[in-house]
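Sample intake sheet
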Amino acid sequence: MSSSTPWCIVGLDNGGNANNATVLDGSGRFLVDGMVESPSRVREGPKAALQALAEAMERVLEVTGVRRSAVAGVGLDTPGPASADGVISSRGSTNFLHPEWAGFDIRTALEELLQLPVVYSNDANAAALYAHYTYFGPERAGRASSVSAIVGTGLGGGVVEAGQVVRGAAGMAGELGHIPLPSAGLLEDGQALPACNCGNAGDVESFASLTGIEKNLLPYWIAKYPDHPLAAEPLPVAARALRAYAEREDPLALSVFEQQAKALGMLFTIAANFTDPHAYFVGGGVVAAKARFREWLLERVRVHTALRVEQREAAVFALVPDLDMAGARGAAIAAREALATGEAVATGEAATTGEAVAVSPRPGVAPGPA
């Protein structure tokens, strides 16, 4: 990227139903302070989905008033499994069920369509990177490390070291959901070892995910609370309703989320012994929960994370900010870092006719140290 020409990065977060887009300018400001969504069309196959991504970029440029000629590159994130370079797994995934997605190189295909450099990230890695940079700030981010657990339908994760996502040889580093957990101290009396969709038993995702709640945790806890209103609901409905009950401090719901907090604490305990990060981030649906429950869950995760005294003094626990925008923003940051490697990027004059909007963390994420 030129050091004298105004430039910006477009971030594209690809999901099963919608694409979300953002724009990051040369000074490090995001130019949209909300969602800029459009249909993703992934279920129609690669051709329709690629066109939808191109349209998502054009729409966010129109919203922000940024000229296409000012776009230096694009950050793209998708759900996994996929390689570090954006080749969709040969087995496909929940979002990429169309047969043409198997083994499809989405990064290269989008790069050819847009005629712009495209940098690929796993969606959980993108969210982890955004949490890292938002908490620590651009000055300290490159000297800090973090581990993020993103609790959704499954459990995604991300490991950031010295401001860079750890990707691994096959691009599958940070797949924290499939780390096996010891059952001692985690399972209740008479509770069966939960199974994960990946085929593992007793891994993090089998406890800490919406799927884990529906298939593993709720059946056990509803049996202990047979008169609970959720006992009359189908398990998929009950699982999605559980957070609202937890926000009202319902005993059954809090028991389920306490068990999830134990699982996340065990995960972070393992992470503490091989990365010893400066920060532990929790993301996913909890970020959108009411403040009291959100803070309760984060505190329970902290309590269940076994750290040495020195580690407790050095590390922090926080939520991934801006849940719905974290993926697109993290993808944009990853692209900026990749494209500006070894270069001092000047901000130049504004590449937009609109007004820039600074990033502001949501409640539950304290400002990072200076």
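Comment: Residues 143-322 form a domain with the Nucleotidyltransferase; domain 5 fold (CATH 3.30.420.40). The beta strands are 8-14, 18-25, 37-39, 71-78, 118-122, 145-151, 155-161, 164-165, 279-284, 316-319.
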